[in-house]
């Protein structure tokens, strides 16, 4: 692996590393999903069935599971129960990070999509059907936001205590400050 450039710019190897999920990326995904669903529902609203208010509940269930898993992982990492002989194998922690990243994207897509639908429903407030579909859309938006937040929490919980943070990007793997 090559050392970072003296001016702090990333090396070619750094460009392909997996880093923490960025909120700005999730916002961009949500915006694209909102626009796409708004366009889809605008031209096809009459072809869709009524939106049940339970449509977004599965997002709440997955978010609750991820928060619970995050609490367990955080405790095991804090208690140093990670490793081949510990209660949390490093491969499982890596799988949880992958789950968290995928869930964060799913939450952003869901929140954005439901937002696009809600915007359409608010624009058509004179229709009784549109007013009846609003609670389902609001529940979906909140569920998507909760899932994205829970996924970011799980991803955060999977970090080792020695991982570099935005506050201290120079932390080495052994916890000591790295040489510049």
Could you characterize the architecture of this molecule?
The protein has helices spanning 23-44, 57-78, 90-123, 128-157. It is mostly helical and 180 residues long. It is elongated. It starts with 22 loop residues before the first helix and ends in a 23-residue tail after the last helix.
| Strand residue content | under 5%
Give the overall shape, derived from the CA principal axes: elongated
Major β-sheet annotation: none
Give helix and strand order, one letter per element, not per position. Answer: HHHH
Task: Tally the helices.
Answer: 4
Question: N-to-C terminal Cα separation, in Å?
Answer: 15 Å
Helix content: 55-70%
Note the topology:
Layout: H1 23-44, H2 57-78, H3 90-123, H4 128-157
Helix pairs in contact: 1-3, 2-4, 3-4
List keywords for this structure.
60% helix, disordered C terminus, 0% strand, mainly alpha
């Amino acid at each position: 692996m090559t050392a970072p450039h003296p001016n702090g710019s990333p090396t070619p190897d750094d460009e392909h590393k997996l880093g923490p999920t960025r909120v700005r990326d999730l916002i961009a995904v949500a915006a694209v999903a909102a626009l796409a669903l708004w366009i889809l529902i605008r031209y096809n609203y009459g072809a869709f069935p009524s939106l049940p208010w339970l449509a977004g509940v599965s997002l709440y269930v997955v978010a609750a599971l991820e928060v619970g898993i995050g609490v367990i992982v955080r405790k095991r990492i804090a208690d140093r129960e990670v490793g081949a002989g510990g209660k949390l194998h490093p491969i499982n922690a890596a799988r949880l990070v992958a789950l968290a990243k995928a869930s964060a994207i799913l939450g952003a897509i869901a929140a954005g999509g439901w937002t696009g639908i809600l915007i359409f429903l608010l624009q058509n407030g004179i229709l009784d059907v549109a007013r009846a579909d609003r609670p389902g859309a609001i529940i979906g938006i909140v569920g998507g936001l909760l899932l994205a937040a829970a996924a970011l929490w799980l991803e955060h919980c999977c970090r080792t205590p020695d991982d570099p943070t935005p506050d201290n990007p120079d932390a080495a793997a052994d916890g000591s400050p790295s040489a510049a």
